[in-house]
Amino acid sequence: MDSNAPPQNGFLKSLSKDDFEAIRPHLRTAKLSQGQVLQDLGDPINQVFFPHDCVLSRMLELDSGNSVDVSLIGPDSLLGALAAAGVPAAKSGAVAVLPGITSIIDTDRLRKVAEQSPTLTKILARHGQAVLARAQQAVSCKTLHSVEARLARWLLELRDLSGSDRFMLTPELIAQMIGARSNSIAIVAHTLEQQGCITCGGGRVEITDANRLAEAACTCYAVIKTQHEQLLRDVGRSLECREIAH
After folding, report:
1. What HEC string does 186-222 produce?
2. The domain spanning residue 165 has which CATH number?
3. pTM (2 decimals)?
4. How many other C-beta atoms lie within 10 A of the C-beta of residue 150?
5. Confidence band of 234 (pLDDT split at 50, 70, 90)
6. Do 115 and 161 belong to one domain?
7. Could you tell me if 37 and 135 lie in one domain?
8. Which domain holds residue 154?
9. How far apart are CA 69 and CA 139, in angstroms?
10. Of 84, 101, 151, 211, which one's alpha carbon is 20 to 30 angstroms from that of 158?
11. How deeply is 123 buried, as exposed, middle or buried, from its count of CB atoms within 10 A (0-12, 13-18, 19+)?
12. Into how many domains does the chain fold?
């Protein structure tokens, strides 16, 4: 990572100067392609990713043998918070949903820095707790809600994290993310298109009416959005308290 360049990831920006300077020399940047596997299911988490403009997915293996996205990670968070905080990871994998640039650090290196910094440890723990809450919500969502409602919810999450209404997404990738068959994705996407929520075709999806899409989404969207906003507020308050103390 360019030593003169400011951090582009929200988590890195939230760190104190001392904490950031402690990990900065160990950061490197990489360009991720869509669908790139960052971690196979069941493998140890050896790297932590801080997205700049990409969106990553943490995948969880279900009892059925299928996998499902349990946490989308955007430019305001990190992938690997639990591992960096020293918490054993479940059987999970990771993939790049939207391509772009990310900063990367070895998990062991970040863990060593965190061991010397209570503030960094606390922020990692909070992001890790948010991942666990999101995972529980996602597993329940797959059990309780229709494919149409899950697709609407997932597209809205992607919109919130990427800041865009337009995505290059194949039915196969979407199916993997929400735990559905690719042929059912085409059917429900057509239904959402008829409702005026999205347009799709040729591997492209565009949200044309976010309000209508929110009406089609399951209640999990509001829950996940509230949890995420609360995480950012909690981290922000901690930073303000630390600045006042100093």
Report:
1. HHHHHHHHHCCCEEEECCEEEECCHHHHHHHCCCHHH
2. 1.10.10.10
3. 0.88
4. 26
5. low
6. no
7. yes
8. 147-217
9. 9
10. 84
11. buried
12. 2
